[in-house]
# Entry
Amino acid sequence: MAQSQHWKLHVLGAALAASCIAGVASAELPAETLTTTSIDPSLSARVYVSDIAINHISDGRLRVFNAQTGKLLGMVSTAYAGNYTVDPAKAIYVATTHMSRSTRGERTDVLEVYDRNSLAFQHEIILPSKRAQTLTYRGLVRTNSTGQWVYVQNATPATSITVVDVAQRKVLAEIPTPGCWGVLPAATHPMRISMLCGDGKVATLTLNEQGQLVQRQTTAVLFDADNDAWFHHAEQVGDSYWFVSFKGVLTQLNLGGEVAQVSSVHNLVSAADQRKGWRPGSYQLFAVDPTGQSAVFAMHSHGAEGSHKRPAEQLWTFDVHTGKRLSVLPGHNAIALTISKNGERLHVVDGETGALRVWQWRNSGPKQLITTIARSGEAPSHIESHD
# Structure
């Protein structure tokens, strides 16, 4: 091709390109409208995954997934080391901290209220600036049995409980709880809570209608905090609560009365398994089905002092009434377990990959895998089921 012809083609191409660009620039683009949507209220198969976002901890979040399909349904901010509780009939409550300059400045602690279906922020209640800033644990923010009060754990490091009336949108009281930790509400008494104490006892507090303490009762020593402490995570069915020790002793308490009562005690680890060092471990390390018949535990071998946060090598299922082991399955590096309130699903967070696996549940243990969410968060450590 002659040089003159090549130059003419080059000029023609440039002209066509310029014409196209001019045409695009002159065409009006449709205006974008920001909209919101809601989760179908009939979709009760939801699972809430708490992510403390440890690499940017002032920006934590709570993700909501469809537990059947794994689809992300939405997200709620939990800000700096926020803790949450879900009342499926009312709202999602997040106790958290905000700094006036993001990572510095004036501190404000709040109880934030979010709509359970739209996940939209509704309002906030200012808290005393002393709430416990921790990884997410169930016993740090709880509603009472009527859903009218929310209890928030404080640590300055002195321990206390803030009582919030969410109907009146105000703080009712702060209850000192020296040497004791966590909130374990009774099912049959809306103004009664229990907690574990560092001396191996369990304290039960009874409040009046104004949220003030009227009675405090403690048990005898129930566990040796030095040699075989109880994990703080507990499972509840009605007034029954289950606790497991570092070495695998399962204790059931009734917390409905003025003082906690022991219902049963079972050693989950046989002599042969003790020789191999099998122990429970992780964060939300076991789950009891809603009938109170069976439970599944995250277990690891070669356990020793300091191994109590280790991800699971195996999942052991037990009949909690007899202490009989029903099944042993792979652990999937579990650090958090919960069974849906309808008793049909087991949700398991993988502590190494952040994956969330949802299994069909039967009383003998997890069965068929329903769905896997490859990455449910950056640092997920706690899960709750809506149904």
Q: What stands out?
A: The chain is about 5% helix and 45% strand. Residues 1-9 have pLDDT under 50 and may be disordered. The two ends are 75 Å apart (CA to CA). Residues 37 and 118 are 6 Å apart (CA to CA).
